[in-house]
Amino acid sequence: MAATQNTTQKDDKAAAANPAEQQQATESKPAALEEDDEFEDFPVDDWEQEDTEAASGSGAAQHLWEESWDDDDTSDDFSAQLKEELKKVEASKKR
Amino acid sequence: MAFNTSFFNDLTDIFSKQDGYQLAQTLSPDIPTEELRKICRSQNAHSIKGALKRGLNALTVDFDQQEIHGWVEVYAAYWNATGVILAARESSNDSSKSSSLLWTKVYETWTELLNVVLRGYQNWGFEAWTIPCMYVVCKHLRIFAMQADEERNNNSSFDDAAAILQDDFDPETNKRQKLEDCARVLSRVFMVCQTDRAPLEESRKWGSYYIANLLLKTYFKLNSASLSKNILNSLRAGGRDMPDFSAFPKSQQVTFKYHEGVLAFLEENYVLAEQCLTEAWNLCHKDAMKNKELILGYLIPCHLIKSHTLPAEKLLEPFPELQRLFLPLCRCIKRGELHKFDLALQEGEDEFVKRRIYLTLERGRDIALRNLLRKVFVARGFEEAKEGEKPARRTRVPVAEFAAGISLGSQEKIDNDEVECLLANMIYKGHMKGYISRQHGIVVLSKSGAFPGTNV
User: Highest taxon of the source (chain B) (predicted)?
Assistant: First the structure.
């Protein structure tokens, strides 16, 4: 009786120690990164329009984002493989 | 600086020019230790108020007695703080003495200074042009709060003492004790700015955005999106009586738009998020690299979800960190490589979760799938063109071909039922236009734009 109580207690302790350890591990990681993910104070309070990102990007804002698909990129391995696969499917149909 | 004749001469100059930022400089704790020592030693606790009173009374400035009384109190409180800061700085250099919570004391004396400054605006008639004094005091209150928390957390003996005293002890709250207190103080300052009823040109409302930004930063640190929302709501409600947003300094506009954008992002309001973050990006100072990186960190996932566009190489060029984070994912999305996309997402999981963009990026898988299906469609080529007509793409695609594509992309065998399910989802979400003819095992795609917005 006493022995079982003892083991459960041990288990409890082990269980209690574990989450604490885990917590510490998860805590220490973001803490280090947290330091630099805060928006910084600007060294000056205000600036001219020509010092803004929009002005310095030389009006090329529309080239900063591109389509998520790419028709030119048909020479990569993956596209070649895909063509092979499609041929196989078509061939099996005809048979 | 020291509280001597040249200091009072400077004050005369500042008050006649009404230069708020220069005045604020005289209340900054962010000065060399030597300077600090000079100020501290220039007076003692008995003489300080008398000296200030004489000095300020002698200024050739149009002051009323209340205002003079106010500034005497402010500079006396500042002088008081310099001594405590000096002690804290000196002991951080000498680790053997760091047995007591010196930065907590700094935080407390600095809070006293802030309260005096606040009273200056509420009771002693401080003018609105002096509001940068409030900025500098508030800004450093937050810094001291964080330093105090850090010092206490590093010093476990104080933690234990607190733990024993309280039954309902929550270590997390305790960790941020002073920062939370600071948030409460700052929200009071915010109200003092917001509720000023003086005419706009001399209103403390001009201080609203600076203080709001400090509060937002603080709430972000405390992980409280709901309190942040309160600030936005309050500013929105007061909108009619506020100066035009574009009239505020750009540093304040950019900082505010960034936080507003991130909050919208966390609520999955990507339309508003994109709008705010784009504004922040456009107005941001071109050399503020760290802030530009932070803005892009959320703007990139926004673009992916909203307009299905990816950052161009040129955009990411100056940001190696962002390249490392996003380029692998972008490449997989472009090529429709589902399996590699999953791997890349897994690879960056910790960091994506930390940046709170994981769930948004996960939705990029749909775009990768869309591109994969599109590739199948494009690879199948055209119908034989009739005389004098433009060649039309072959719009009747066997489910088996899509299945082959998806199996290749995801590196696992997927049965046709599951493929049909994925296709139905794509059609439902508007990534693909057409219908599935189960009878024939064929997908009939729209002849005009089978994959909307992608030129085919």
Answer: Eukaryota
Give a yes or no: residue B385 inside a domain. Answer: no
**Which residue among B341, B362, B383 closes a domain?**
B362
Considering its fold, how many domains does chain B have in total?
Answer: 3
CA distance B144 to chain A (A): 15
Distance (Å, whole) CA B75 – CA B48: 9
B18 and B80 in one domain? yes
Q: Cβ B334–A42 below 8 Å, yes or no?
A: no
Taking phi over 0 as left and psi of -120 to 50 as alpha, with beta for the rest, B268 belongs to left
Closest partner CB to B380 (pick from A45, A70, A86): A86
Query: Which chain B positions have a beta carbon within 8 Å of A36's beta carbon?
Result: 290
Give domain status of residue B274, yes or no. Answer: yes
User: What does the pLDDT look like over B42-79, one tens digit per residue?
Assistant: 888 888 999 999 999 888 777 888 999 999 999 999 99
What does the alpha-carbon distance between residue B444 and residue B135 come to, in Å, rounded to a whole number?
A: 63
CA nearest to B300, candidates B259, B357, B338: B357
What is the value of pTM for the model shown? 0.85
Owning domain of residue B220: 5-154+174-244
Instruction: Say if the ipTM goes beyond 0.85.
Output: no
Chain B CA closest to residue A90: B401
What residues of B are in contact with residue A71 (Cβ under 8 Å)?
378, 455
